Amino acid sequence: MNRTPWLLGLLALGTLAFTLGACAPAPQTGPADGFALRPALAGERRTLWLPDFGPVVYYADPRGQGRPLVLTHSVNAAASAYEVRPLWNVYAGTRPVYALEWPGFGSSSRPDVRYTPELMARSLAALIAQLNTEVDVVALSLGSEFAARVALDDPRVRSLALISPSGFGPARGGSQQAGQAGEGEALYRRLNSVGGVLYSTLRTRPSLQYFLSRSFRGPVPGDVVEYAADTSRQPGARYAPLYFISGQLFHPDAFGALYSRLTTPTLVLYDQDAFVSFDRLPAFAQQPNATVQRIAGTDGLPHFEKLADVKAALDTFWIKIP
């Protein structure tokens, strides 16, 4: 759909209220090594070094038997491993579990650098290389695109489970269209020039509460809002989200370039989502590697509200994979 430049900017600023709502003006880098942010999960916080970027954090609980499970969160200003907390809690101790925090988010470093889909995928690839074994990967939202990139290149990704993934239809907002229109860099510069003022205006809990409510069918848990506020206030918090808002972290054709090329066994869990759509899921479901299942009565974070249903779907999917 064609959009004029001024409308693209307006749409992006509207999305900014969600993705950057709780961020405050920040210095150039984030304190990955100091772990200033309280832990998102009960596991050990570990750090891997990503060349040309710096420290990236992941949580580890190596207890249990079987193929390791790697969890990855979504992308927004309040993003962190806290988004996968219900899945972590239900699987930790039963099998080795790891949870990556994408570059620029959570306890990972947040420098003022160029954030790209390739950078994000490289961080997941580095974690899998460090584990050096076959893994099952669960990804949320835009993180699904990064995970699919890695699965196309690394046979150690034995399966993918994508929860409310982006890239299966037009985005419900300005970010992805902005990237497709080739205006990402210009939009990034405009947003960055006023970022401090916007962050100081939008860093309120009512704003977080409102926009998080679009991913929950019922009330938003208070601890989710609190952790979103905490992670959004970390030094350097604005940089990676600005690249998200300007459309530069999306693939312009994730279905054609990524999902349709997958041979890795892939499960998609979805229902409603305020930010992405699923128009091409029926076509994906025809692929021999694909399983598509609706978790009815949920929005973008079904594992928070219907954990039993999500776990049952995951367990049924994994048991069929040798």
UniProtKB/TrEMBL annotation:
Keywords: Hydrolase, Signal. Residues 69-304 form the AB hydrolase-1 domain. It holds the Pfam family Abhydrolase_6. Residues 1-24 form the signal peptide. InterPro entries: AB_hydrolase_1 (IPR000073), AB_hydrolase_fold (IPR029058). One of its GO terms (molecular function) is hydrolase activity. Coiled coil: none annotated. SUPFAM superfamilies: alpha/beta-Hydrolases (SSF53474). Transmembrane segments: none annotated. This is Alpha/beta fold hydrolase. It comes from Deinococcus navajonensis.
